[in-house]
Amino acid sequence: MSTRRTRIHRHCLLGVLGAVGCWVTASARSAETHWLDLESRIQYGYFTEDRHSLQNLAESLGAPDSHDRLKSYYVGLLAYRLTQLDPNKSEAQRCVHALDQSLRAQSDFADALALQSACLAVLTELGKWRTPFGAPKSATQLRKALDLAPRNPRVLLLDALADYEHGGATGCEKFKSTAAGFDAERANVDQVPGWGAAEAYMWLGRCYLDKGDVVPARDALERALLIAPEFAPARRLLSSITSG
User: 33's torsion region: left (phi>0), alpha (psi -120 to 50) or beta?
Assistant: First the structure.
């Protein structure tokens, strides 16, 4: 039995008050399971590059809610995944708006800050003259996220991506330390949000390939596919190595 489950079990043995606490904990765990299930569906659609399933999922999820930080966060994550498959200004704007709602519910939600930074960067690239303050706000939101959660691997991943996409010299080292952060996180209790490990290894492999380091690139890509066997971009990169 895990340490967390042991604590829950002990709490449930404390009579009436313990029973109430146990019910609250069980409800929280049920909510976490719901969001992790949604996250896995988003990730699967992204890994398999299935825009149609992601669009259907977005319709079923509905609008963001300023009273529900996780619903708004996942509306934003869905929009972000759609922009990754097909850069689209309306999806980037939807991502930014959804994460505004998430941050209204919890202003220090580091995951939401970092993801909004990424969506603002997409929006800026798609239409710089219409979003003159996009780049500064993107940098500000990412800096806030790093200050709040310097070891959060999703924050570190989005920071590494921002650095890499702008030609940062330390890109590969950032991806390497980010991947290690995901390994440490995955060894503990499920996190909500919990995505990112496969992407960290895929980007690490891509970064190594850019530098001509084939062996560590292959190792990283194999790790990505071990986590997410259906990850199409990682599979294509690995095929480019094995096909010579």
Answer: alpha
CA 157 – CA 36 distance, rounded (Å)? 19
Residue 18 CA, chain-centre distance (Å), reads 35
Does residue 208 or residue 134 have the better pLDDT?
208
Could you tell me the residue range of the domain that residue 234 belongs to?
Answer: 151-244
Phi, psi of 236 (to 5 degrees): -65, -45
- For 19-77, the pLDDT digits (tens) are 555 544 555 667 788 999 999 999 999 999 999 999 999 999 999 999 999 999 999 99
CATH of the domain at 226: 1.25.40.10
Report the chain's C-alpha Rg in angstroms: 19
Same domain, yes or no: 49 and 143:
yes
pTM of structure: 0.86
Position 23 in a domain: no
Is there a single domain that holds both residue 119 and residue 164? no
| Side-chain-side CA neighbours of residue 95 (13 Å) | 28
Alpha-carbon 158 to chain mean position: 8
Cβ neighbours around 132 below 10 Å, total: 9
Calculate what percentage of the chain has a pLDDT beyond 70. 84
